[in-house]
User: Which sequence fits this backbone?
C-alpha cells in the first residue's frame, strides 16, 4: 500500500533533508508544501496519510496548521520536525494533536523508530525508492535538480542554532520565546544600520559584540537591545538592585553570553567547525543605532549577515542578534558546505 506523505517546511534545505531521511524501502508518494497555507489546501483537497510539519514558517506557522487540522478534524497523522526545542513548544504541539516531535537536524534512526512505533513502517517489506515519488501536485514543488544556495543552507542552519540558543535562554528566564525566521543577506558594512529591522518606534539601543573564528571563517556576533529591555530582564534574572547601572551591564553581558555561545556553537556543529570566541564587550548603551555601528561605516567590505529578531512572549523584551561573517568567509563556507554534502 502506498503511503501519501506531505512535507511542509518553508526551507528547501529542510524539505530535502526530511525526504532523504525517510526509509528507502518505504512505499511512499511524496508531496511538498512551502508554508502552512499550502499544506492545509493540499490536505483539504487531496488528503494525506502523514504530515511532516515545521513550526517556524511565514504566512501560517505550524501551530496554526495543527489548530486547523484539529478544528476541521482532518484525517492525517502529524509529526512535527522543528529546530524549536523549548519544552513549551513540544508540549503545545502534543496538545494540538501531533503524534511526535523530531528535533532538527533530523536523525534518521529516530524518525524511523517513530514511524515503526505507530505502525506506519516495517523494514524490508517493499523495495521502493523515494526518488521515484510521483504526484507532486502543489506548485513550486521540489525537483531533483533544485539547487540549494549558500543563503538557503545558512538560513536553515541558523534556524536550528537559534532554537538551541532560545531553549537555553527560555530555561534560564522561565519564559517562552517566540521563534522568528532568520534572515540571511549580503550587505555592505556601511549600510549595516539600514539593514537592521529592529522594533519600530525605538530609536535608542544598547549593544554587545563578540568576535569568533574557526577554519578560515570569521566574524562577529552583535546583540542589540531596545532601551525598554533592561529593567524587565533584570527582574527575570532576579537581580537584587534593578535600578543601578551595574546590573544593567550584567544583564546585557549575561543574555549575550547565552545567545552568542549557544548560537555560534550550534552553527559550528552543523558546519563541522570549532569556533573560538573572543571576549564580549559592550559597544555602548542608550544610543542611536548609527552611533553604535559607527565603526562599520568606514569600511567598504561586504558582510554576510544573519539576522534573528528575538521576542520574549508577554515580557516586552525584544533584541536583534546579528551574526556578521566577513567577505572572505563566504568562499570558505561554500567549500565547507560542498564538502559536507559529498
Assistant:
Amino acid at each position: 500500500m502506498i503511503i501519501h506523505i506531505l512535507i511542509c517546511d518553508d526551507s528547501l534545505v529542510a524539505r530535502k533533508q526530511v525526504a532523504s531521511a525517510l526509509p528507502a524501502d518505504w512505499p511512499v508518494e511524496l508531496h511538498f508544501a512551502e508554508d502552512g497555507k499550502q499544506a492545509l489546501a493540499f490536505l483539504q483537497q487531496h488528503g494525506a496519510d502523514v504530515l511532516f510539519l515545521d513550526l517556524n514558517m511565514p504566512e501560517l506557522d505550524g501551530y496554526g496548521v495543527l489548530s486547523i487540522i484539529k478544528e476541521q478534524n482532518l484525517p492525517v497523522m502529524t509529526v512535527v520536525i522543528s529546530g524549536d526545542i523549548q519544552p513549551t513548544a513540544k508540549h503545545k504541539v502534543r496538545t494540538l494533536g501531533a503524534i511526535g516531535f523530531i528535533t532538527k537536524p533530523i536523525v534518521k534512526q529516530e524518525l524511523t523508530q517513530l514511524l515503526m512505533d505507530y505502525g506506519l513502517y516495517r523494514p524490508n517489506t517493499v523495495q521502493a525508492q523515494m526518488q521515484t515519488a510521483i504526484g507532486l501536485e502543489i506548485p513550486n514543488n521540489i525537483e531533483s535538480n533544485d539547487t540549494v544556495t549558500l543563503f538557503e543552507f545558512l538560513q536553515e542552519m541558523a534556524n536550528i542554532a537559534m532554537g538551541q540558543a532560545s531553549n537555553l535562554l527560555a530555561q534560564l528566564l522561565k519564559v517562552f520565546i517566540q521563534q522568528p525566521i532568520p534572515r540571511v543577506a549580503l550587505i555592505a558594512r556601511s549600510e549595516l544600520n539600514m539593514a537592521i529591522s529592529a522594533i519600530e518606534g525605538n530609536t535608542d539601543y544598547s549593544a554587545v559584540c563578540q568576535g569568533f573564528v574557526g577554519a578560515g571563517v570569521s566574524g562577529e556576533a552583535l546583540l542589540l537591545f531596545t532601551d525598554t529591555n533592561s529593567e524587565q530582564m533584570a527582574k527575570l534574572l532576579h537581580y537584587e538592585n534593578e535600578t543601578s547601572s551595574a546590573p544593567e551591564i550584567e544583564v546585557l553581558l549575561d543574555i549575550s553570553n547565552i545567545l552568542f555561545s549557544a548560537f555560534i556553537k550550534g552553527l559550528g556543529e552543523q558546519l563541522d567547525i570549532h569556533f573560538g570566541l573572543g571576549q564580549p564587550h559592550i559597544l555602548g548603551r542608550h544610543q542611536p543605532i548609527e552611533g553604535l555601528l559607527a565603526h562599520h561605516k568606514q569600511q567598504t567590505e561586504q558582510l554576510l549577515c544573519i539576522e534573528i529578531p528575538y521576542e520574549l512572549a508577554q515580557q516586552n523584551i525584544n533584541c536583534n542578534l546579528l551574526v556578521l561573517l566577513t567577505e572572505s568567509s563566504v568562499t570558505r563556507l561554500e567549500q565547507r558546505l560542498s564538502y559536507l554534502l559529498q
